[in-house]
Design a protein that fits this description.
The protein is of the alpha+beta class. It folds into 2 domains: 239 residues, Glutamine Phosphoribosylpyrophosphate, subunit 1, domain 1; 179 residues, Rossmann fold (3-Layer(aba) Sandwich), CATH 3.40.50.2020. It has 20 helices and 25 strands. Bound molecules: iron/sulfur cluster.
Length: 487
């Protein structure tokens, strides 16, 4: 069982599972990776790792915990020598939380050392693993990412790039990869471009990483996004681009804009903060309500609430204050602490609420557990009406592309319609942004149902890739047991 899903102080949010960072040609490579990972901490808080290369040898340090705790020690950083390094933060990818699953993964291949950090999730990993094990592969981890290493080891190409390409042609799902070899750093994005990956430059060194906020922290300039289906090679002569996959319709994860990415990042030329504000404005146009105050559920509801307030003309106030210092200390709380529930993390700012008609703006509803407690808290603080507006459509389907989601039946929107959810949460009214409204906020005319411009499968169930392992679960128990022996 995952401890985080049982934590009563959990935000009840979907969780991004990984962030990646790689740099080539920098005397302080590992230190810059550590800083970059620190900026990407929101993409994974359970474990982190860095592998560096000093021209002769690879050096690795991987551990469970947060980036500052793992890489804040000088003794650790001194071991990570070299002018090239890659790193990874992880929440919990396929395979569970074991030290041997902490990335980057690395292997000595016939063509030299190869290290790999992966953001995303493969949807045919169990099928591939079964086939690889039957060919004699010995897996060290339970992570889906390790399949890629074995596929590279068995590939026939003459160069590492050829072999990596051959391996990637066999996988399905979402991947933004950062790899380190003894003569380059490689960044690759899957043909649909589901997860983000950007290129930056700092002095003479080049960087590939998940988000632009990780470039900012080391004073690097953003160059451009890695295109869906593109492979970029960073080496002593600069950045080289390859297009090894047939072109496909791009299906970037729209939820990165709604919640996962940091608001100070830009993705594919769009400011995440600005996108969230525009979603809030669209929501106000679609589902306006007569009220006295707009209050965000902090922190992720803030930009949408600002947009809602600006569009509706209703004042914005910080009516809920978040305590940022509630950590894992309370992960197994006693009953008395458990009863306090959400109040340890959020508290009502009574002066902004009492006697007012309140609109609460949040980014999404997953199980609804936190929403119920927040509404109770706002009513107890004297709100005369409580309306809730959600900056995402109802989340009714699980994600299989690198986001930690509950099973479908645990998602409130998979069991109830909007009216039922409103009663369940205890609000006077509840509205979600429409699918077309979301696409309008993203600068489109609406959702192109024939050819959707984003991945929105957790709202629509329209998955942009095959879900081979999922489809095989009921018919091939052997695939499941193959992994469960290691969990
Ligand atoms: S299913 Fe949802 S969370 Fe997963 S990649 Fe698609 S839009 Fe993003």
């Amino acid at each position: 069982m995952d401890l985080l899903t049982t934590n009563p102080f959990d935000d009840d949010k979907l969780k991004e599972e990984c962030g990646v960072f790689g740099i080539w040609g920098d005397g302080d490579a590992s230190r810059h990776v550590a800083l970059g990972l620190h900026a990407l901490q929101h993409r994974g808080q359970e474990a982190a790792g860095i592998v560096s290369y000093d021209g002769q040898q690879f050096h690795a340090h991987r551990d469970v915990g947060q980036v500052a705790d793992i890489f804040g020690r000088e003794s650790v950083m001194l071991t990570l020598k070299g002018k090239a390094a890659i790193g990874h933060v992880r929440y919990s990818t396929a395979g569970g939380t074991l030290l041997r699953n902490v990335q980057p993964l690395f292997a000595d291949l016939a063509l030299g050392g190869f290290c790999l950090a992966h953001n995303g999730n493969l949807t045919n990993a169990m099928k591939l693993r079964k086939a690889l094990v039957s060919r004699g592969a010995i897996f060290q981890s339970t992570a889906d990412t390790e399949c890629i290493i074995h596929l590279i080891a068995l590939a026939q190409g003459k160069t590492v790039i050829d072999r990596l390409t051959e391996a990637l042609r066999q996988i399905e799902g979402a991947y933004s990869l950062v790899c380190l070899t003894d003569d380059c750093v490689i960044g690759v994005r899957d043909p649909l471009g589901v997860r983000p990956l950007v290129i930056g430059k700092r002095g003479h060194s080049y960087i590939v990483t998940s988000e632009t906020c990780a470039l900012d922290i080391i004073g690097a300039d953003y160059i451009r996004d890695v295109e869906p289906g593109e492979m970029v090679i960073l080496d002593a002569s600069g950045v080289h681009s390859l297009r090894p996959f047939p072109p496909a319709q791009h299906r970037f994860c729209v939820f990165e804009y709604i919640y996962f990415a940091r608001p100070d990042s830009s993705i594919e030329g769009k400011s995440v903060y600005d996108s969230r504000k525009r979603i809030g404005m669209e929501l106000a146009r679609e589902s306006g309500v007569d009220a006295d105050v707009i209050i965000p559920v902090p922190d992720s509801g803030v930009p949408a609430a600002i947009g809602f307030s600006q569009e509706s003309g209703i004042p914005f106030e910080l009516g809920i204050i978040r305590n940022h210092y509630v950590g894992r200390t309370f992960i197994e709380p006693g009953q008395q602490i458990r009863n306090l529930g959400v109040r340890l993390k959020h508290n009502a700012n009574r002066a902004m609420i009492a006697g007012r008609r309140v609109v609460l703006v949040d980014d999404s509803i997953v199980r609804g557990t936190t929403s119920i407690k927040i509404v109770e808290m706002v009513r107890a603080a004297g709100a005369t009406e409580v309306h809730m507006r959600i900056a995402a459509p109802p989340t009714a389907h699980s994600c299989f592309y690198g986001i930690d989601t509950p099973e479908r039946e645990e998602l409130l929107a998979s069991r109830m319609n909007v009216e039922e959810m409103a009663r369940h949460i205890g609000v006077d009214s509840l509205a979600f942004i429409s699918m077309d409204g979301l696409y309008r906020a993203m600068g489109q005319e609406g959702r192109d149902n024939e050819n959707p411009q984003y991945c929105d499968a957790c709202f629509t169930g329209d998955y942009p890739t095959q879900l081979t392992d999922r489809e095989g679960q009921s018919t091939d128990d052997g695939q499941m047991s193959l992994l469960s022996r290691f969990a």
